């Protein structure tokens, strides 16, 4: 077939370095950009097959998120904006690792196993972040798509969640919104403005927000969005990419892991600030006290704020919908206690990685999911959205119930339900603080985090560590869990676990305890037990 000849011809322009083996991990492929040209071409091929198979548009995002500028990566997006299925992750790994002369065989193998009709049309949306390597790498994806006769739309520079949104809009025939960047801004900003209009006596302090753009795509997109916000949000944007290096000493991952403010941001005491990561799918908030102490409001605090707000609105609207919060083992113990004991909401714990949280959240009427690092969103079931809409439109309900239902309706619209989205989460948080008339300090005071520490340990082979119970306990190597249990017993309110990273060649260690000294000491001792 001509298509396969074209694949052979073009693949020689995107050769695989012999012997290089890469794995499609939690966030797709991610490594030094120099090793990725063949991967990108092949992911263009695979996305085209996935589109033919699903008879829907598939997304391909070129980004390495919070990794250093020298890295890059690629991730496929399924029709509803979600991650691809495990079987297709395996195909991605097989196709990526086939030596040059075996590529056609590997491709035909997938076509046969999935019984793909090669005459079916294929549509692929492609997006990229601001890394210098992203331009040529996304061109390699486009080359892969065209080889197999797929039609591509290149969105150019977009955030990861924007591309997820476009894919979902396209495959729902516009029911979720317009598959354009402008459509995205209009939907989110209009909902935000409707929400904030509900607040009486909104002060200038409430309108003012300081953003660290991590010198990445999020900064560019915030600038683009500003004109859609009217004067409802006044943004001071730092680390906008004009001077600094992507993710270097800044961004959500740096702030969360280092537990300190990013460089490049002028923070006045008490001021509300937030940081995006390199592809704007994560967000954390923070402020400094008048004594200079740093206060972080991470994904757990965000999940608590959002779920409290939603629970109150559901009560006011007289709607009986089940709300749950989905977390991972990295969630601060205080947040879990507060949610379960004080808020009385269901809390689930899943393995690390957004696809696990997303999946668990789909089981509820309303599922709020956040990783502690600030990646998360809220999912509303179809039935929940319908009930909210009915209540908002019902002529017989009280004004109070109607007002709450209308707020819920606009809240649904401001949220990007396809994936965690720093821009959408930021608008939601800003709206909630405004509606509740809450300062960042009051939000922070809902509960106090247990001091914690995260460390990375380099080992010869991280895969020797196997875990169970949503990664909270190690089942191998033998004796490791017992050693951790013994160390944890030495400290108060302590908890610790280890797991192999899905995105870096390291083992991650997490510890929390009653004081920072104890958390640091426990993390250190556990990391020694990992060797
Ligand atoms: P790994 O490297 O598997 O820990 C990290 C984050 C995840 C997730 C992925 C994808 C932590 C502890 N881990 O995974 O939560 O965001 O990257 O980006 O933050
Ligand atoms: Zn990211």
TrEMBL record:
Q: Would I find Phosphoprotein among this entry's keywords?
A: yes
Stated name of the protein: Phosphoacetylglucosamine mutase
Q: Which GO terms describe its molecular function?
A: magnesium ion binding; phosphoacetylglucosamine mutase activity
Task: Show the CDD domains listed in the entry.
Answer: PGM3
Which organism encodes this protein? Answer: Parambassis ranga (Indian glassy fish)
Q: What does the Swiss-Prot or TrEMBL cofactor note state? A: Binds 1 Mg(2+) ion per subunit.
Q: Where is the Alpha-D-phosphohexomutase C-terminal domain?
A: 456-527
Give the binding site residues for Mg(2+): 65, 277, 279, 281
The UniProt similarity line reads:
Belongs to the phosphohexose mutase family.
The active site of this protein is located at: 65 (phosphoserine intermediate)
Please provide the record's keywords in A-Z order: Acetylation, Carbohydrate metabolism, Isomerase, Magnesium, Metal-binding, Phosphoprotein
Q: Name one Pfam family in it.
A: PGM_PMM_I
From the UniProt record, list the coiled-coil ranges.
none
The residue ranges of the Alpha-D-phosphohexomutase alpha/beta/alpha domain are 52-100, 114-167
| Biological role stated in the UniProt entry | Catalyzes the conversion of GlcNAc-6-P into GlcNAc-1-P during the synthesis of uridine diphosphate/UDP-GlcNAc, a sugar nucleotide critical to multiple glycosylation pathways including protein N- and O-glycosylation.
| Pathway this chain belongs to | Nucleotide-sugar biosynthesis; UDP-N-acetyl-alpha-D-glucosamine biosynthesis; N-acetyl-alpha-D-glucosamine 1-phosphate from alpha-D-glucosamine 6-phosphate (route I): step 2/2
Lineage of the native species? Eukaryota, Metazoa, Chordata, Craniata, Vertebrata
- Could you tell me which SUPFAM superfamilies the record lists for this protein? Phosphoglucomutase, C-terminal domain, Phosphoglucomutase, first 3 domains
């Amino acid at each position: 077939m001509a298509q396969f000849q074209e694949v052979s011809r073009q693949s020689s322009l995107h050769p695989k370095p012999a012997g290089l083996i890469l794995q499609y991990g939690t966030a797709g492929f991610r490594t030094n950009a120099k090793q990725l040209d063949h991967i990108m071409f092949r992911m263009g091929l695979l996305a085209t097959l996935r589109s033919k198979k699903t008879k829907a548009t598939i997304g391909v995002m070129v980004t390495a998120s919070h990794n250093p500028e020298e890295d890059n990566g690629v991730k496929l997006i399924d029709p509803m904006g979600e991650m691809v299925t495990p079987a297709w992750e395996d195909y991605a790994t097989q196709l990526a690792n086939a030596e040059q002369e075996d590529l056609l065989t590997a491709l035909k193998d997938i076509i046969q196993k999935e019984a793909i009709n090669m005459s079916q049309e294929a549509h692929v949306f492609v997006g990229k972040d601001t890394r210098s390597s992203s331009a040529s790498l996304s061109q390699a994806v486009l080359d892969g798509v065209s080889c197999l006769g797929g039609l591509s739309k290149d969105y150019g520079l977009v955030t990861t969640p924007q591309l997820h949104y476009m894919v979902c809009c396209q495959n729902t025939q516009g029911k979720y919104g317009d598959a354009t960047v402008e459509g995205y801004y209009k939907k989110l900003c209009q909902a935000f403005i409707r929400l904030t209009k509900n607040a009486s006596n909104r002060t200038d302090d409430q309108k003012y927000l300081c953003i660290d753009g991590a010198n990445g795509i999020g900064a560019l997109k915030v600038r683009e969005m500003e004109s859609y916000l009217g004067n409802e949000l006044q943004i001071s944007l730092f680390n906008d990419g004009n001077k600094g290096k992507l993710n270097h000493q800044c961004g959500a991952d740096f702030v969360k892991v280092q537990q300190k403010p990013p460089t490049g941001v002028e923070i006045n005491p008490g001021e509300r600030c937030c940081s995006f990561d390199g592809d704007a799918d994560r967000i954390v908030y923070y402020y400094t006290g008048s004594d200079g102490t740093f206060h972080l409001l991470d994904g757990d605090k965000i999940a608590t704020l959002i779920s409290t707000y939603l629970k109150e609105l559901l009560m006011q609207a007289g709607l009986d919908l089940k709300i749950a919060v989905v977390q991972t083992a990295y969630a601060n113990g205080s947040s879990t206690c507060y949610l379960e004991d004080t808020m009385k909401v269901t809390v689930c714990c899943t393995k690390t990685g957004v696809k696990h949280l997303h999946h668990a959240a789909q089981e509820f009427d309303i599922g709020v999911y956040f990783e502690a690092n600030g990646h998360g969103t809220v999912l509303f079931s179809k039935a929940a959205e319908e009930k909210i809409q009915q209540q908002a439109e019902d002529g017989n309900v009280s004004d109070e119930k109607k007002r709450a239902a209308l707020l819920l309706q606009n809240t649904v619209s401001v949220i990007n339900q396809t994936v965690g989205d720093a821009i959408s989460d930021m608008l939601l948080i800003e709206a909630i603080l405004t509606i509740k008339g809450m300062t960042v300090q009051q939000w922070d005071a809902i509960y106090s985090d247990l001091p914690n520490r995260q460390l990375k340990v380099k080992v010869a082979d991280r895969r020797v560590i196997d875990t169970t119970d949503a990664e909270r306990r190690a089942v191998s190597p033998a004796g490791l869990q017992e050693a951790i249990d013994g160390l944890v017993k030495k400290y108060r309110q302590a908890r610790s676990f280890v797991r192999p990273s899905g995105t870096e060649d390291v083992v991650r260690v997490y510890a929390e305890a009653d004081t920072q000294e104890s958390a640091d000491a426990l993390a250190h001792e556990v990391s020694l037990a990992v060797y």
